[in-house]
Specification:
Layout: H1 5-10, E1 14-18, H2 32-37, H3 59-74, E2 87-88, H4 90-102, H5 110-113, E3 117-123, H6 131-138, E4 144-145, E5 159-160, H7 166-171, E6 178-191, E7 194-207, E8 235-236, E9 239-240, H8 274-277, E10 290-292, H9 299-303, E11 310-313, E12 326-327, E13 329-331, H10 336-343, E14 351-361, E15 368-369, E16 372-373, E17 381-388, E18 391-393, H11 400-403, E19 415-418, E20 434-435, E21 437-439, H12 444-451, E22 459-466, E23 471-472, E24 476-477, E25 480-481, E26 485-486
Parallel strand pairs: 1-21, 1-22, 2-6, 10-11, 18-19
Antiparallel strand pairs: 3-7, 4-5, 6-7, 8-9, 11-14, 12-13, 13-17, 14-17, 15-16, 19-22, 20-21, 23-26, 24-25
Helix pairs in contact: 3-6
């Protein structure tokens, strides 16, 4: 069985949870262990960075990163009198490579940061060249106000009208004249509490470091008029330039852009026998909440006799001719995925979308949004709305009562990412109450293991709160004993 990342992401489940002694149910899983094998290394660790080629940036990409830095530094406004030409540094690259392989969304290591500046960038989805992040860092200039000399008395104010400007100031810090960057593919990387299945992580180190408090990133004046004496008066395209500065590390062997080596096929040859499961009472859930649909699938077609909730859309739906009827509220004959693009929930790269049925509407209005033109309909019909699927990392002890308690009308819960080894969590703090339907004070992740939705390796779980139940049945499944509860 050969499993792609898309197939693996689709292997999630529903934990149906209810209130009062509320409940949850767990559907949707296949043999997750086999699906995860594709992402494991030799030690059986599947969430760490995969083995890469000798370098994660090619010689051409290295040059484009360097050229873009120098181009952007040469065109700052107001003009810089002491902006130095930047060169590539192999030691900074190696340090960046080491940190990128750690797959931690934070600056580091701490021992390096006292002497080196650092910018971080990450993306997932369609391919973007490394220089994309350099440009994104520089684009923070729109929110930065340069502190002129008369404003520095003696310290310069730092004025940033956006959320961050320090990436821009590091890129254009005049005395930071060496840079080294690396890129790594990180599986299931935690980015501000959200789990990115395949994050392309870029780290750039700068020396000497910039962003010193109370200082302007550069001196304003005629280009090259305040270059350090060591540059001997050299100037190239508005940058202080020293002869020989173009000599940087060149690889001895031909480089490729391989970040992750080609994966071999995974064949499902293991057959579970009685002895495999006798000590764990193994159960595998076959119910699935998140459904993969094509661009043409209408909600009316998909929802007959089933619960409408969460769907995964493919890439390329902008080119589909499937009809979208309405704006904000969509007719049930609308394409699920194109309605999601129209509303701005996903883009042409595809992704997950939550659906909520909204009952009958008297009419549906035309609009053109995000490359999709909807049509109007002046006739009463059933409707639905679309919303974004959020992903949240949780602990082995997290419950639905804490995450998204049941309310009427029911709302969508985030897709959660369970850590590994929840079977070993303390059952007094991570209780499991029920079988298939679970009390909402149950541990989400341990209930998911109990129901056979995920294995002890962890993974993605979809949770659906439902109304309270009077009784919950105890059982022993997959190595976890659940509790019973009966309401008199």
């Amino acid at each position: 069985m050969k499993c792609t990342a898309r197939e693996w992401l689709r292997v999630t489940t529903v934990l149906f949870m209810a209130g009062a002694i509320p409940a949850m149910v767990v559907p949707n899983a296949t043999l997750l262990e086999k699906l995860l094998e594709k992402y494991m290394d030799e030690d059986g660790e599947w969430w760490t960075a995969k083995h890469r080629g000798k370098r994660a940036v090619t010689q051409d990409e290295l040059q484009s990163i360097l050229d873009l830095h120098n181009k952007l530094r040469s065109q700052v406004y107001p003009t810089a009198s002491n902006m130095q030409y930047m060169t590539w540094d192999i030691e900074l690259e190696r340090a960046a490579e080491s940190w990128a392989e750690a797959c931690l969304w934070q600056h580091g290591p701490a021992s390096l940061l006292s002497s080196v500046g650092q910018n971080l960038g990450a993306h997932w989805g369609r391919y973007r060249p490394p220089a994309y992040h350099v440009q994104a860092w520089y684009d923070e200039v729109k929110d930065f106000s340069y502190p002129y000399e008369h404003e520095c008395n003696p310290y310069c104010p730092f004025r940033c009208s956006g959320s961050v400007c320090s990436h821009y100031t590091q890129v254009v810090w005049a005395t930071s004249n060496r840079v080294g960057c690396a890129v790594n593919l990180c599986h299931n990387m935690n980015i501000w509490g959200q789990i990115w299945p395949k994050a392309v992580y870029m780290v750039c180190n700068y020396s000497p470091k910039g962003n010193w408090w109370g200082h302007a990133p550069y001196k304003h004046g005629q280009p090259c008029s305040a270059c350090p004496p060591s540059f001997g008066g050299g100037c190239r395209e508005n940058l202080c330039y020293k002869e020989g500065s173009d000599n940087y590390y060149a690889p001895q062997e031909e480089e490729t852009n391989e970040i992750e080596g080609q994966q071999s096929e995974v064949h499902d040859t293991h057959v579970h026998t009685r002895s495999d499961n006798s000590n764990r009472n193994e159960v595998i859930s076959t119910q699935q909440m998140s459904q993969f649909v094509s661009c043409e699938v209408k909600l009316r077609d998909q929802c007959k006799g089933t619960t409408c909730n969460r769907y995964e859309c493919p890439a390329g739906c902008l080119s589909s001719t499937a009809k979208v009827i309405g704006s904000v509220h969509y007719d049930m004959h609308s394409s699920i995925c194109r309605a999601a693009i129209h509303y701005g929930i996903i883009d042409n790269d595809g992704g997950w979308v939550d659906i909520t049925r909204q009952g009958r509407k008297l009419y549906f209005m035309y609009s053109s949004r995000n490359g999709v033109e909807s049509v109007s309909k002046y006739q009463s019909a059933n409707s639905f709305t679309v919303s974004k699927v959020t992903v949240q990392a949780v602990t082995c002890e997290t419950t639905v009562e804490q995450l998204c308690p049941f309310h009427k009308p029911a709302s969508h819960c985030p897709r959660v990412y369970c850590p590994r080894d929840c079977m070993q969590a303390n059952p007094h703090y991570a209780r499991v109450i029920g079988t298939r339907f679970y009390s909402d004070v149950s541990s989400i992740c341990r209930a998911a293991v109990h129901a056979g939705v995920v294995r002890n390796h962890g993974g993605y779980v979809d949770v659906m709160p439902v109304d309270k139940r009077k009784a919950y049945k105890a059982s022993f499944q997959n190595g976890i004993s659940s509790e019973s509860f009966f309401q008199s």
